[in-house]
Protein backbone atom coordinates (compact mmCIF):
# COMPACT_ATOMS: atom_id res chain seq x y z
CA UNK A 1 0.00 0.00 0.00
CA UNK A 2 1.77 3.12 -1.22
CA UNK A 3 -0.41 5.65 0.57
CA UNK A 4 -1.07 4.63 4.14
CA UNK A 5 -2.71 6.37 7.05
CA UNK A 6 -1.18 9.76 7.86
CA UNK A 7 -0.20 8.48 11.30
CA UNK A 8 1.63 5.44 9.99
CA UNK A 9 5.37 5.14 10.41
CA UNK A 10 7.01 6.04 7.09
CA UNK A 11 8.33 2.96 5.35
CA UNK A 12 10.16 1.67 2.32
CA UNK A 13 9.58 -1.51 0.35
CA UNK A 14 11.66 -4.09 2.24
CA UNK A 15 13.06 -5.49 -0.99
CA UNK A 16 14.19 -2.03 -2.07
CA UNK A 17 15.74 -1.43 1.33
CA UNK A 18 17.61 -4.74 1.17
CA UNK A 19 18.82 -3.96 -2.35
CA UNK A 20 20.04 -0.55 -1.18
CA UNK A 21 22.08 -2.05 1.64
CA UNK A 22 23.64 -4.69 -0.59
CA UNK A 23 23.98 -2.53 -3.68
CA UNK A 24 22.02 -5.13 -5.68
CA UNK A 25 21.46 -3.41 -9.01
CA UNK A 26 19.66 -6.42 -10.52
CA UNK A 27 17.10 -6.35 -7.73
CA UNK A 28 16.59 -2.62 -8.22
CA UNK A 29 15.91 -3.14 -11.93
CA UNK A 30 13.50 -5.97 -11.13
CA UNK A 31 11.57 -3.79 -8.68
CA UNK A 32 11.39 -0.94 -11.16
CA UNK A 33 9.96 -3.27 -13.78
CA UNK A 34 7.20 -4.10 -11.30
CA UNK A 35 6.58 -0.46 -10.42
CA UNK A 36 8.08 2.26 -12.59
CA UNK A 37 7.06 4.92 -10.07
CA UNK A 38 8.60 3.13 -7.08
CA UNK A 39 11.38 5.66 -6.54
CA UNK A 40 9.03 8.60 -7.05
CA UNK A 41 6.70 7.39 -4.30
CA UNK A 42 9.54 7.56 -1.79
CA UNK A 43 9.16 11.31 -1.27
CA UNK A 44 5.74 10.57 0.19
CA UNK A 45 6.46 7.36 2.11
CA UNK A 46 9.99 7.93 3.48
CA UNK A 47 9.95 11.51 4.72
CA UNK A 48 11.85 10.87 7.97
CA UNK A 49 14.09 7.89 7.29
CA UNK A 50 17.01 7.11 5.02
CA UNK A 51 15.94 6.80 1.41
CA UNK A 52 17.76 4.34 -0.89
CA UNK A 53 20.22 7.01 -2.00
CA UNK A 54 21.13 7.85 1.61
CA UNK A 55 21.91 4.17 2.18
CA UNK A 56 23.90 3.72 -1.03
CA UNK A 57 25.85 6.94 -0.42
CA UNK A 58 26.76 5.84 3.10
CA UNK A 59 27.93 2.40 2.02
CA UNK A 60 29.71 3.42 -1.16
CA UNK A 61 27.54 1.56 -3.68
CA UNK A 62 28.54 3.75 -6.62
CA UNK A 63 26.67 2.04 -9.48
CA UNK A 64 23.54 1.64 -7.39
CA UNK A 65 23.67 5.30 -6.37
CA UNK A 66 24.22 6.40 -9.96
CA UNK A 67 21.14 4.46 -11.10
CA UNK A 68 19.05 6.07 -8.36
CA UNK A 69 20.28 9.53 -9.31
CA UNK A 70 19.40 8.96 -12.97
CA UNK A 71 15.95 7.55 -12.16
CA UNK A 72 15.01 10.18 -9.57
CA UNK A 73 17.50 13.02 -8.99
CA UNK A 74 15.15 14.55 -6.40
CA UNK A 75 16.33 11.87 -3.95
CA UNK A 76 19.61 13.78 -3.69
CA UNK A 77 17.90 16.83 -2.19
CA UNK A 78 16.01 14.92 0.48
CA UNK A 79 17.20 15.01 4.09
CA UNK A 80 16.89 12.15 6.56
CA UNK A 81 15.80 12.43 10.20
CA UNK A 82 19.21 13.83 11.13
CA UNK A 83 18.96 16.44 8.42
CA UNK A 84 21.62 14.75 6.29
CA UNK A 85 21.58 14.56 2.51
CA UNK A 86 23.19 11.87 0.38
CA UNK A 87 26.07 14.28 -0.26
CA UNK A 88 26.62 14.77 3.49
CA UNK A 89 26.80 11.00 3.93
CA UNK A 90 29.02 10.29 0.94
CA UNK A 91 31.34 13.10 2.06
CA UNK A 92 31.55 11.88 5.65
CA UNK A 93 32.30 8.30 4.58
CA UNK A 94 34.85 9.29 1.94
CA UNK A 95 33.05 7.96 -1.13
CA UNK A 96 34.57 10.28 -3.73
CA UNK A 97 32.99 8.65 -6.78
CA UNK A 98 29.49 9.16 -5.37
CA UNK A 99 30.30 12.75 -4.43
CA UNK A 100 31.33 13.37 -8.03
CA UNK A 101 28.19 11.68 -9.37
CA UNK A 102 25.91 13.76 -7.18
CA UNK A 103 27.55 17.04 -8.13
CA UNK A 104 27.86 16.34 -11.85
CA UNK A 105 24.43 14.75 -12.38
CA UNK A 106 22.32 16.79 -9.94
CA UNK A 107 24.21 20.01 -9.35
CA UNK A 108 26.60 21.94 -7.12
CA UNK A 109 23.65 23.40 -5.21
CA UNK A 110 23.72 20.18 -3.18
CA UNK A 111 26.89 21.53 -1.55
CA UNK A 112 24.77 24.16 0.21
CA UNK A 113 22.27 21.80 1.84
CA UNK A 114 22.37 22.17 5.64
CA UNK A 115 21.81 19.56 8.31
CA UNK A 116 20.10 20.30 11.64
CA UNK A 117 23.26 21.94 12.98
CA UNK A 118 23.69 24.11 9.92
CA UNK A 119 26.54 21.98 8.62
CA UNK A 120 27.18 21.61 4.91
CA UNK A 121 28.77 18.56 3.24
CA UNK A 122 32.12 20.37 3.29
CA UNK A 123 31.84 20.60 7.08
CA UNK A 124 31.20 16.87 7.45
CA UNK A 125 34.17 16.15 5.18
CA UNK A 126 36.40 18.38 7.32
CA UNK A 127 35.21 16.65 10.49
CA UNK A 128 36.38 13.33 9.04
CA UNK A 129 39.60 14.61 7.45
CA UNK A 130 38.52 13.69 3.91
CA UNK A 131 40.95 15.82 1.92
CA UNK A 132 40.06 14.44 -1.52
CA UNK A 133 36.38 15.07 -0.78
CA UNK A 134 37.14 18.59 0.44
CA UNK A 135 38.97 19.32 -2.78
CA UNK A 136 36.00 18.18 -4.86
CA UNK A 137 33.43 20.10 -2.81
CA UNK A 138 35.39 23.34 -2.65
CA UNK A 139 36.12 23.19 -6.36
CA UNK A 140 32.43 22.69 -7.14
CA UNK A 141 31.13 25.28 -4.68
CA UNK A 142 33.82 27.64 -3.28
CA UNK A 143 31.35 29.63 -1.18
CA UNK A 144 30.46 26.54 0.86
CA UNK A 145 33.95 26.49 2.37
CA UNK A 146 33.35 29.86 4.02
CA UNK A 147 29.90 29.09 5.40
CA UNK A 148 29.39 28.95 9.17
CA UNK A 149 27.31 26.48 11.18
CA UNK A 150 24.54 27.38 13.62
CA UNK A 151 27.26 27.59 16.29
CA UNK A 152 29.24 29.99 14.08
CA UNK A 153 31.87 27.33 13.47
CA UNK A 154 33.96 27.56 10.33
CA UNK A 155 35.25 24.58 8.40
CA UNK A 156 38.55 25.19 10.23
CA UNK A 157 36.87 24.99 13.64
CA UNK A 158 35.39 21.62 12.76
CA UNK A 159 38.64 20.27 11.34
CA UNK A 160 40.38 21.07 14.63
CA UNK A 161 37.59 19.93 16.95
CA UNK A 162 36.76 16.61 15.33
CA UNK A 163 39.84 15.55 13.38
CA UNK A 164 43.30 15.93 14.92
CA UNK A 165 44.89 16.03 11.47
CA UNK A 166 47.34 18.82 10.79
CA UNK A 167 47.34 17.72 7.14
CA UNK A 168 43.62 18.45 6.83
CA UNK A 169 43.94 21.85 8.47
CA UNK A 170 47.03 22.74 6.44
CA UNK A 171 45.20 21.85 3.24
CA UNK A 172 42.20 23.98 4.20
CA UNK A 173 44.26 26.99 5.25
CA UNK A 174 46.24 26.86 2.02
CA UNK A 175 43.19 26.17 -0.15
CA UNK A 176 40.98 28.82 1.37
CA UNK A 177 43.75 31.36 0.98
CA UNK A 178 43.21 31.28 -2.77
CA UNK A 179 39.43 30.80 -2.82
CA UNK A 180 37.63 34.06 -3.44
CA UNK A 181 35.12 35.41 -0.96
CA UNK A 182 34.25 38.23 1.38
CA UNK A 183 36.30 36.83 4.28
CA UNK A 184 40.05 37.28 3.91
CA UNK A 185 42.72 34.86 5.12
CA UNK A 186 43.37 36.60 8.43
CA UNK A 187 39.68 36.85 9.26
CA UNK A 188 39.19 33.17 8.50
CA UNK A 189 42.03 32.15 10.82
CA UNK A 190 40.66 34.32 13.60
CA UNK A 191 36.93 33.70 13.25
CA UNK A 192 35.23 33.03 16.58
CA UNK A 193 32.47 30.52 17.23
CA UNK A 194 29.41 31.30 19.35
CA UNK A 195 31.54 30.98 22.50
CA UNK A 196 34.19 33.32 21.16
CA UNK A 197 36.76 30.58 20.60
CA UNK A 198 39.16 30.75 17.67
CA UNK A 199 40.68 27.64 16.15
CA UNK A 200 43.78 28.35 18.26
CA UNK A 201 41.70 28.14 21.45
CA UNK A 202 40.37 24.75 20.35
CA UNK A 203 43.76 23.42 19.27
CA UNK A 204 45.35 24.41 22.59
CA UNK A 205 42.47 22.95 24.61
CA UNK A 206 42.96 19.64 22.79
CA UNK A 207 46.76 19.74 23.16
CA UNK A 208 47.26 19.50 19.40
CA UNK A 209 50.94 20.41 19.29
CA UNK A 210 51.40 20.14 15.53
CA UNK A 211 48.25 22.12 14.86
CA UNK A 212 49.24 24.87 17.29
CA UNK A 213 52.68 25.06 15.69
CA UNK A 214 51.08 25.40 12.25
CA UNK A 215 48.69 28.12 13.38
CA UNK A 216 51.36 30.13 15.16
CA UNK A 217 53.43 30.10 11.97
CA UNK A 218 50.64 31.79 10.02
CA UNK A 219 50.90 35.52 9.49
CA UNK A 220 47.91 37.29 10.98
CA UNK A 221 47.08 34.65 13.60
CA UNK A 222 45.85 36.58 16.65
CA UNK A 223 47.55 34.60 19.38
CA UNK A 224 46.01 36.73 22.14
CA UNK A 225 42.41 36.77 20.93
CA UNK A 226 39.98 36.36 23.85
CA UNK A 227 36.86 34.22 23.98
CA UNK A 228 33.61 35.23 25.70
CA UNK A 229 35.08 34.17 29.05
CA UNK A 230 37.93 36.60 28.52
CA UNK A 231 40.49 33.81 28.03
CA UNK A 232 43.39 33.79 25.62
CA UNK A 233 44.82 30.55 24.24
CA UNK A 234 47.49 30.63 26.96
CA UNK A 235 44.78 31.08 29.61
CA UNK A 236 43.04 27.98 28.25
CA UNK A 237 46.26 26.00 28.67
CA UNK A 238 46.94 27.24 32.19
CA UNK A 239 43.39 26.81 33.46
CA UNK A 240 43.06 23.18 32.41
CA UNK A 241 44.55 20.12 34.18
CA UNK A 242 48.20 19.50 33.46
CA UNK A 243 49.12 17.02 30.75
CA UNK A 244 52.31 15.81 29.15
CA UNK A 245 53.57 18.31 26.63
CA UNK A 246 52.07 21.36 28.36
CA UNK A 247 55.47 22.98 28.92
CA UNK A 248 56.39 22.64 25.26
CA UNK A 249 53.00 23.97 24.22
CA UNK A 250 53.28 26.91 26.58
CA UNK A 251 56.77 27.74 25.33
CA UNK A 252 55.51 27.73 21.75
CA UNK A 253 52.73 30.17 22.62
CA UNK A 254 55.10 32.41 24.60
CA UNK A 255 57.59 32.42 21.73
CA UNK A 256 54.80 33.76 19.50
CA UNK A 257 54.21 36.59 22.01
CA UNK A 258 51.30 34.79 23.60
CA UNK A 259 50.00 36.27 26.83
CA UNK A 260 47.47 35.59 29.54
CA UNK A 261 44.49 37.92 29.67
CA UNK A 262 45.91 39.83 32.63
CA UNK A 263 48.96 40.79 30.59
CA UNK A 264 46.89 41.78 27.58
CA UNK A 265 44.76 44.10 29.72
CA UNK A 266 47.61 45.62 31.75
CA UNK A 267 49.94 48.39 30.73
CA UNK A 268 53.14 47.13 29.02
CA UNK A 269 55.23 48.00 32.07
CA UNK A 270 53.16 45.64 34.19
CA UNK A 271 53.03 42.68 31.83
CA UNK A 272 56.19 40.87 32.82
CA UNK A 273 55.87 40.57 36.54
CA UNK A 274 52.68 40.01 38.52
CA UNK A 275 54.43 40.97 41.78
CA UNK A 276 55.42 44.35 40.40
CA UNK A 277 54.99 47.76 42.03
CA UNK A 278 51.27 48.19 41.29
CA UNK A 279 49.36 46.47 44.12
CA UNK A 280 45.99 47.25 42.50
CA UNK A 281 46.74 45.32 39.33
CA UNK A 282 44.64 42.17 38.98
CA UNK A 283 46.96 39.16 39.39
CA UNK A 284 47.45 37.07 36.30
CA UNK A 285 47.42 33.28 36.11
CA UNK A 286 51.18 33.21 36.75
CA UNK A 287 50.56 34.01 40.44
CA UNK A 288 47.71 31.57 40.94
CA UNK A 289 48.58 28.77 43.41
CA UNK A 290 46.50 26.20 41.50
CA UNK A 291 49.04 26.35 38.70
CA UNK A 292 51.90 24.84 40.66
CA UNK A 293 52.22 22.15 38.01
CA UNK A 294 53.03 24.86 35.51
CA UNK A 295 56.15 26.09 37.30
CA UNK A 296 58.32 25.12 34.37
CA UNK A 297 56.29 27.35 32.12
CA UNK A 298 56.13 30.12 34.69
CA UNK A 299 59.88 30.21 34.73
CA UNK A 300 59.84 31.12 31.06
CA UNK A 301 57.64 34.18 31.62
TrEMBL record:
- Organism superkingdom: Eukaryota
Keyword Thylakoid in the entry? The reply is no
* Disordered: annotated segments: 263-301
Q: Which UniProt keywords apply?
A: ANK repeat, Repeat
The record's ANK repeats, renumbered to this chain, cover: 82-105, 195-228
Q: Where is the composition biased (Polar residues)?
A: 264-276
Q: Quick check: keyword Thylakoid in the entry?
A: no
InterPro entries in alphabetical order = Ankyrin_rpt, Ankyrin_rpt-contain_sf
Q: PROSITE patterns in the record, alphabetically?
A: ANK_REP_REGION, ANK_REPEAT
Q: Which Pfam families match?
A: Ank (PF00023), Ank_2 (PF12796)
Entry's Gene Ontology cellular component terms: plasma membrane
Q: What is this protein called?
A: Uncharacterized protein
Amino acid sequence: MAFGNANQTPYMDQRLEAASYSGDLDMLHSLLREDKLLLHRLSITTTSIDNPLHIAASLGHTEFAEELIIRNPDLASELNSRGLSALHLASAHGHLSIVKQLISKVGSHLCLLKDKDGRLPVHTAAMKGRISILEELISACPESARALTCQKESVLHLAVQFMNSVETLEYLVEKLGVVGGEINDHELLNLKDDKGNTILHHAVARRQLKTVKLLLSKEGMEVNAMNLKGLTALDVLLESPSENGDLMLGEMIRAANGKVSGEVNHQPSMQRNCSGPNPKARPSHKCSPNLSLKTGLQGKV
